[in-house]
Amino acid sequence: MGKGYAEGPAVEAAEEARERLAEGPAPRALPKRRAVLGCTPDDPAPHVLGWADEVDQEALFASGAAWGLRVVVIDDPAG
C-alpha cells in the first residue's frame, strides 16, 4: 500500500492548523506583574496593597499598617 500525499501526521498537523485559523486569533495575554497582598486595619481581609516594585513591604509591616503580607503574580490591568 503506497503512501499518498494526504496521509499521516502531516495531514493531522495541517488540519489542526486550519482549525486554529478558523477560530481566529488567540486573545492577547495580559502582562504579569508582582503585587503585594496583605491585611490592613480598615480592611482585615487580604487585598492588593500595591505593586511589589512600588511598595516598601518591610516598612508597612514594621509600622503595623499592614500584616500577612505576601507577593503574588497577577495580570497587570494597565497592560
Question: Whole-number average pLDDT?
Answer: 86
Going by helix content, strand content and strand pairing, the class is: alpha+beta
- Overall shape: it is rod-shaped
Number of helices: 2
Low-pLDDT runs of 5+ residues are none
The portion of residues forming beta strands comes to: 25-35%
| Number of DSSP strand runs | 3
Outline the biggest β-sheet: 3 strands, antiparallel
The helix fraction, in percent, is 25-40%
Alpha-carbon Rg, integer = 24 Å
Descriptive overview:
The chain is α+β, with helices and mostly antiparallel strands and 79 residues long. It has one domain (9-75). Helix content is 28%, strand content 28%. The protein has 2 helices and 3 strands. The chain has helices at residues 9-23, 57-63, and strands at residues 32-39, 47-51, 67-75. It has a 3-stranded antiparallel β-sheet, with helices on one face. It is rod-shaped, with a radius of gyration of 24 Å. The N and C termini lie far apart (55 Å). 6% of the residues are buried. The model has no long low-confidence stretch (mean pLDDT 86).
